[in-house]
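Case study B.
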Amino acid sequence: MSDDPKGEIHSLDLAGLRKRLEGLAGERYWRGLEELAGNDAFEELLRKEFPQQTSAWANGLDRRDFLKLMGASLALAGLGGCGRAAPPDEKIVPYVKQPEGWVPGKPLFYATAFTHNGAATGLLVRSHEGRPVKIEGNPAHPDSLGATDAFAQASILTLYDPDRSQVVSSGGAISTWNAFFTALDGEIEGQRLNGGTGLRILTEHVISPTLADQLRSILARFPRAKWHQYEPAGRDSVRAGARLAFGEYVAPQYRFDAADVIVALDADFLSCGGASLRWAREFAARRRVRGGKGEMSRLYAIESTPTTTGSVADHRLPLRPSEISLFAGALAGRLGPSANEARKSPATGSAQWLEAVARDLQNHRGRSIVIAGDAAPPFVHASAHAINQALGNVGITISYTQPVEAEPVDGIESLRELVKDIEAGQVSVLMIIGGNPVFTAPADIRFDRLLSRVAFSVHLSLYDDETSASCRWHVPEAHYLEAWSDTRASNGTATIVQPLIAPLYGGKSAHELLSAVRGQPGRPGYEIVRDYWQRQSRGDFESFWRKSLHDGVIEGTAFAAKAVKAKPVSSPESQAGNSPATNKNAETRESLEIIFRPDPTIFDGRFANNGWLQELPKPLTKITWDNAVLVSPATAERLGLTPKIGTTGGERGRVFADMVELTYAGRKIRAPAWIAPGHADGAATVYLGYGRARAGRVGTGTGFNMYTLRTADAPWQSAGLVIQKTEAQYAIACTQYHHNMEGRDLVRSAALEEYRKHPDFARDKDHPAETLYPGFQYAGYAWGMAIDTSACIGCNACVIACQAENNIPVVGKTEVTRGREMHWLRIDRYYKGDPNNPETFHQPLPCMHCEQAPCEIVCPVGATTHSDEGLNEMTYNRCVGTRYCSNNCPYKVRRFNFLQYSDFETPSLKLLHNPNVTVRSRGVMEKCTYCVQRINAARIDAEKDDRRVRDGEIRTACQAACPAEAIVFGDINDRSSNVAKLKADSLNYGLLTELNTRPRTTYLATVRNPNPDLKKT
Amino acid sequence: MANEIDKTLAAEEIAPVIEPGHTYASITDKISAIVLTRPTPRLWYLGFALSFLLVLLLLVSCTYLLVVGVGIWGINIPVAWGFAIVNFVWWIGIGHAGTLISAILLLMRQKWRQSINRFAEAMTLFAVMCAGLFPLLHLGRPWYFYWLFPYPSTMGVQPQFRSPLVWDVFAVSTYFTVSFLFWYVGLIPDLATLRDRARKRFPRFAYGMLAMGWRGSAIHWHRYETAYLLLAGLATPLVVSVHTVVSFDFTIGLVPGWHSTIFPPYFVAGAIYSGFAMVLTLAIPLRKMYGLEDFITLRHLKNMGEVMLATGMIVAYGYMMEGFTSWYSGNPFERYLMFARMRGPYHYMFWALLVFNVLIPQALWILRVRTSPLALFIIAICVNIGMWLERYVIVVVSLARDFLPSSWGMYSGTMWDYAVFTGTIGLFLTLMFVFVRLLPMISIFEMRGLLHDETEN
Amino acid sequence: MAGVKRNIVYGLMAEFATPEALVAAAERARAEGYRRIDAYSPFPIDGLAEAIGFHRNLLPLIVLIGGAVGCLGGFYLQYWVHVFDYPINVGGRPLNSWPMFIPVTFELTILVAALAAVFGLLALNGLPMPYHPVFNVERFELATRNRFFLCIESRDVKFDAEATRRFIEGLNPEGIYDVEN
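Model:
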């Protein structure tokens, strides 16, 4: 049995091992750890070091998984720094008006921003006694509006990650900042003489004004030096598309709340892309219908890979990428002024679609949006721009502004150029600021090999990763919560990034490194950033500075709209990579199109060592800890894939997927194949970011590295993929494999028409709730929650927010395969209808806080009881762990500490814990508490000034994070409260009410707005 | 074989529950000799050694369990109960035959009970001990098991008496106590007998102390019989209540496949069923090993076979009604569950249990089978397996397929699950071996009384 | 008083081969007017106790009381815990959800009654009593095998070493023994 624990004790020569450890110098030492991890002696040493984990260890969580349990064995690394939970030396400004300094036990909020995927999300970070602990969105920030995404939420775990790089290292040996700066100075001197001929700087796409300013001044100082930008998941095709359409790069700004009809061309705009949070908010705002009335916008999604956007679309058409180009072209032909009326119509089947969509767009001129996705080929973008222009949407639903990137360039071109120079031996000093090009560069660019040709290469990064390994120098970067910087929202609004804590591991920011290049080593980032903005601001700088820090946004920095004119788009044949022509060449019987996408949870691999994101079920597949090759059911049948369910965990846990061999562009890789309902036939999606070799103890070795297939000429999609099934099978940790509702009315839905006819369609199914016993009366507050399933886009932000707020442990892949993941809040995903293009439903499931809780009566020790405000409460230290409550919970929202999951050992992770939430130990049950700590905090405040808690004063972690405002929490006794109103609405229904559990958490049924004259095919 | 049959057919007429030719003296000597004088059979040593090895296995796995946690078992969410609860119910069920034989049959004046009630009671005790281990071990924090008992707690909190688990605690501990008293009271006169037969000093002393100075005074006998009768009267409803309460663990829960009113009766029937199966499983080898065919006659085996047949039919009826109600109720969850049992991932278990529990025991309709120790032994084993499977199907399959398809999962025992289970079997056998070695496995004084009654008429 | 009788024999004991003989002898002895007599047998014999004049049996009453105590105590324990000691909302059920208190009440009824029965038995029989004069008789060990004994105690007012011995001889027993004190 695969579960059989292996308890055998290994023979051990501790002395020898110690010698070996001493023998290893720092940098070597880290690599040494990974190697050591391979042998029994190391296990034994760990056993000695961590008796507490020994248990979990011997239990046969496989060694790596165990190491993954968030930084076990950290002390081995001799980590000293993590004790230093101090505020930064400079003055930073709390968000709320409060006396300087802390009121002990009272958290402070600081405004800052998290830059991800080419735009910033404004944040308010909660700090307890100087420890940043929880991230919230900044309502004042245009790209956040108070919400956050999973990445932003999880970034705080990266801050405390014990695996982060902690030492400057040179050629693998521990060194010091001084040594580095001295060396750097030498090189820079050399460069100054020749104007920087050999100086190259490789960054990710820079949107920080200060950083851009620094780079420009460096280029001014070294005229012959070059600055390159590359990001694996960059938005090159957006830029290229804009250039194609307008001749220059402009950034489209969408307003989805103004759109009645939205056509998404391979665009997952609800969860990817700069402003996705705002877009989700605006989109959801147009999806709410109440009391049988109201209008809804209509969303058509044409996409290859199932995405969250597609999952909430009213109509979804799975097409291969090449077909999407044709479709876009054809649509442009119908609507656009473009010169290609005569283009051949796209693949059969979508013809009817084309008609319907075109007509619908025609009927909503000026009130529609056609949006192309970040990964869609430039031609599709250009077509979208053309259509929008033709429909007169520009200025109403869409406007164009200057880009947020300081120097918008095509990343891959830029990288190619750098490579050319290196090959030509012109590069002597290469500074890689962030990023991990060795891992993420296209497979046909062997970046690691090239690096060895550069005499002086520096890599500044959070982790000692693949790139660091092949650079001369590695210098640790400061996390964004540790360093001063600035950044821009997608509409240009700038934010000062202020640190909440002094660098834990002595890292430095990009600003500080570059100022060294400008001959000012050791100049604090604070000065650099402040200096830049001093130059920008007029008037009283102090108040400007203070206000900007306080608000988290800098007034008047948003870009003004630009007037641009779209040119007719040329035919897709001219587009590289995805042209039907190439398809034809590559078209053989079993040839498929390959689709590259950044992973939904670990993105391009930068979050690979983030346990929260690794264990976060992917929005639709619910896979954790791995990436798989997604294919449609039909394609899977053709390939003869037969996944099996494991005997333990089963549908919730272990699924054995067939290993397949992908052959593409002369390269091969083996990976598990996953059947994704709604995926386009004849195509396969592979997710980037997994298969890291030097990610850290959590991420190393998880999944399969798809960069090894990716080529520079076709970064996102192309034809010519051949998939061969192998005999091998691979255990995938999947938290929900059974996606059929089995005819149970769990998620209730109706079309808008139907809803208008009888608004209480969801209520019809409710059951009378008689009971022999008189119910309890809830006089004071009665907390309740309503979740709008039409608004929910299944983006997972709430899940991570919950994990961060409630100290929920990560259990590792093995435990997930045993069906033991600990998330208090999960998002159930159900499919309905044709598996080739099903209707998808998301249903977030926190604890229902039943008024007649089945879990409570069966607890023999009264460890779970009811508060007089209607909360179903767990008393951890009374729990003996019979697990009867979980058995008797019809919603299965209870989670049990089968082993010691919480990490009581790792110093840095102790800093992460929310001090207001108990850290649970082995053998106790736990579950959603409606964030009772927040309720109590608010109640205390309210009682202090002798009033009731105001509606909206308490926001649960999930609610606060939700970009779509799908989750509403409040006092249902207060008739005027938002939640009470929702519960009174005709759409409101309770889950499994026939059991007479009287859940306090209820749902609003899904209403969708299909196009009447588009029959589902 | 043939003459065995004739014997039985004869037994049908004159019904000797004790072979002719015995006197008070012979009975007394023969039975007490097993403990006092006769050399211990080699088989005993062998059996004891083997079962004690299993006890060691139990100790190892318990230690590991306490150190690491219940995570070493296969349990998960949704199937948070696995082997532990299955075994608990199984053992408790087995524990039912003893008290039933001693109490109910006593009240029914069934003379044939008297040669088997003693070790049946012992079996009850040991089975309940094994059963009791599991609820304790399966706790997430076993060291706090005493929180399930009411005691003056510094925390000022008490058990939550609405929970069936607390009912279990009371039912099982009461059952154990009463069974123990019943058994011990029954032993007192025989301990006195051993005291008076024992020649060596220590046994004399030990048995003497245990006998508490019993001297067979007429008045003592009189009160003794009243007490014994009263205990029987108390034990009878108790036996029924215990497995009813155990079934409440499930019926009080609202899990489809648990939440059913048919459970209490057919759990009790099932308990008696498995109990008698276990008595046969033990009695048949024992009477061979110690040559007790005179006292445990084919008549006994035949009767027990008949009880098994009867209770087996009740259990079968239970299965039938379960199926029927789940269909007739129209409750989609119940219906789906029934379907899942028959066709789902665990279908093989379901069908196997029907074969073991319903099909095979039908052979008991045949007299030849009922009177063939070997056949009875095999059937008894089958029933033991079948009953275990039944509990497995009830506990695991129901949890694996409850209300939200999103949280459907599966379960399978790990090697540690099996280790603990076989460990308790070892414990049970070990205690059994110790018992037959040190105490009279047949009630001597009752056999004397039996002989007396026999000779009277 | 006991001191006075210290050095006198405890009584006279007669041995019989069959239960019937013992019962007959016991009846005769009682008819003779002896009151302090006791009979010993390897198994219970119907009518023997009556023969030596034993009538009132307290045990059933004790058990009844035990049962009543268990029942009331059991229910009150739960009622007290959930209504007075620690009243808290559990699953929306009323504090006194008496139907759910029945199982424990029942079990405790049985438990206490059973304990009453056993300890009542021991108490009434004066057990444990490891030493008793009758054990001094060599052949008494057969009382737990196949022999039946009748003992007339010296405490009996009618007891007279000679007369009683003569009377017992009249019962033609298998043997007559002095029971040392």
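Chain B touches chain C through 64 residues (CB under 8 Å). The remaining cases will be described in the next quarterly update.
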